[in-house]
Structures are given as C-alpha cells and as structure tokens.
Amino acid sequence: GESVGLHLPTLSVQEGDNSIINCAYSNSASDYFIWYKQESGKGPQFIIDIRSNMDKRQGQRVTVLLNKTVKHLSLQIAATQPGDSAVYFCAETYTGRRALTFGSGTRLQVQP
Amino acid sequence: GAVVSQHPSWVICKSGTSVKIECRSLDFQATTMFWYRQFPKQSLMLMATSNEGSKATYEQGVEKDKFLINHASLTLSTLTVTSAHPEDSSFYICRAARGTSYEQYFGPGTRLTVT
C-alpha cells in the first residue's frame, strides 16, 4: 500500500561531510527505484534511479545502493553542501505500473 | 529537460467553493498524468492516474466525485476540488509521463488553502 509518514526524520550533517539517507521498501515485486529531492514549496526533483538488476549506481556526487535481499535503498551524497538541504524521498514501482509509491522522506539539514 | 507547469501555484478559497488546478506539459506530449497530494511534513500520496481521453483511475479512499480529473489533451490535465473543505488544504502535485516509458516529470505543485 501507499506509505504514509507522520514525522519526517532529520539527518543533520556538517558541510563537506558525506550523507547517507536510507529507505526501506516493502513490495518485493518493485524493480525500479528513484530518489527525489524536494525543497520547501516545490515539486520533487529527480536525483538518480536504479533498476533491480543493479546494486549500485553512481551519479555526480551521489550514489544509490540497492539491497534487494533486505529491501533497502540508500542515497549517498558526497561532500554535502548547504544547497543539498531538502527533504529526500525514495520512490518505487514495478514493471507494468507507471505510478510511483513514495517513502516517508528524510529531511537533510546541512550545517555550514 | 522537459517542463511541467501548474497553475495556480497557490490558491486560497472559501469552504464550499470549487477550485480547478491545471497541469501542463510544455514541451512534450504526456500520455499519462498522475496527481499527488502532500500534507505538511508528509510524503506524496497518489490520488489518481489519468490517461489522455480516458476516465481517471482513482486510488482507494480518494473520492472521485470530489476530485474531478480531466485529461482532455496530451498537454493538459486538470484537477477540480469540488465543495472544498479545510481538510482539503494541501499541496497538490502533478506528474506527467512521456509516452510509455518511465520518463516522467513533476510539476512545481499548487498550494491549496481552504478557509
């Protein structure tokens, strides 16, 4: 079913540190995953995606890791910057379904 | 990248009135549009999926007679909140899908406040 978050967990890091944001998913049929960044009052912004035939994918300063065994997804941000401060959501779907199911989100606060 | 716009970006209305929110794909044809609702400090909840020229498919618990969705063209979908109440106050976000792929783009959202 859809994920509902009543509280947003917060991750606070120092500028320049690496950040790791975690996400657990429940649908074992999910085979496509996306990380989004959402700034206050704006729509989600695509960061990186990964398919279930991979366990790691790298982008610019970001890496997504997928562990299908424990249904866990993580987003690693290298050298975190103040501009990275936002809420981060993971989203999942499966072949044949184009709608996304969103996780509950994590607020990242970067201290200068 | 592709651009999706929403109008209005924010709206305040009185309880009992109806509000229409537009979602436009500006530089591509969106065969499918998704509408999400997001309450403060919460995640995005899928409300409905609409395919151009077809009736929308609503998620469980979403009242189709209250949230009217029209997807009359490949570049425009509208969400009308009928007889709005304060509990309908939320951030409404559309997502437009190009073709049959997973290539999809979010709109900037519309903040609805019902007084």
What report would you give on this structure?
- The complex is a heterodimer of chains A (112) and B (115).
- Mean pLDDT of chain A is 92; it is low at 1-6.
- With 112 residues, chain A is mainly β.
- In chain A, a hairpin with a 7-residue loop joins strand 8 (86-93) and strand 9 (101-102).
- Chain A is globular.
- Chain A contains no helices and ten strands.
- In chain A, strands 1, 3, 4, 8, 9 and 10 form a six-stranded mixed sheet that branches. Chain A has a four-stranded antiparallel sheet with strand order 2-7-6-5, with no helix packed on it.
- Chain B has 115 residues and is mainly β.
- Chain B has strands at 4-7, 10-13, 19-25, 30-38, 44-51, 57-58, 67-73, 76-81, 90-98, 104-106, 110-114.
- Chain B starts with a strand and ends with a strand.
- In chain B, 0% of the residues lie in helices and 56% in strands.
- Chains A and B meet through strand 4 and strand 9 of A and strand 4, strand 5, strand 9 and strand 10 of B.
**Given the structure, what is the number of helices of chain B?**
0
Number of DSSP E strands of chain A = 10
**Largest interface: which pair?**
A-B, 26 and 25 residues
Task: Compute the separation of the termini of chain B in Å.
Answer: 37 Å
Beta-strand proportion of chain A: over 45%
How helix-rich are the residues of chain A, as a percent range? under 10%
Overall mean pLDDT of chain B: 93
Please provide the ordered H/E string of secondary-structure elements of chain B: EEEEEEEEEEE
Q: Which radius of gyration of chain A do the C-alpha atoms yield?
A: 14 Å
* Cα distance spanning the termini of chain A: 38 Å
Uncertain residue ranges of chain A: 1-6
